[in-house]
Write a structure and sequence with these properties.
The protein is mainly alpha-helical. 38% of the residues lie in helices and 9% in strands. It contains three helices and three strands.
Length: 133
């Protein structure tokens, strides 16, 4: 238990020491901006680290709720992206359609008269066979 408390105290001490160190900003001859932990000459200036935000309880809770709703929205979008999407091809003349033979369903007679034989339509001379004369 004592070792844990010493380790925690050491982490706090080193963390505060790292936070207390300043950062220096300088510009070199070519115009590049350089950040370092040591001053690089007369042109370097100390940069103050920004203080962390201290939100109120309401701001914190609203940020947590917004993050949760964003996470759910992202999951929903990922799920929708994994779904197969139907696609249609604009082909008004039917050129892209695969050729297939017309199919008859069994048990359905497509002829008008079931008494007619399976033959081509009769010529004019033979209409008497079909008219019942």
């Amino acid at each position: 238990m004592i070792i844990r408390s010493l380790l925690a105290l050491g982490a706090v001490a080193f963390g505060s020491q790292a936070e207390a160190q300043s950062v220096y900003r300088s510009v070199d001859e070519s115009g590049r901006i350089i950040y370092s932990d040591r001053p690089a000459g007369k042109t370097s200036e100390a940069i103050r680290a920004p203080k962390p935000a201290n939100p109120s309880r309401f701001e914190y809770d609203s940020a947590v709720m917004r993050a949760e709703s964003d996470r759910l929205q992202m999951q929903r979008m990922e799920w929708e992206n994994m779904q197969q999407r139907p696609f249609t091809v604009y082909d008004p003349r039917g050129l892209q359609r695969p050729p297939y033979a017309p199919q008859r369903q069994p048990g359905i007679n497509i002829r008008l008269d079931p008494n007619l034989p399976d033959s081509p339509a009769p010529s004019l001379e033979r209409t008497y066979l079909y008219n019942g004369r």
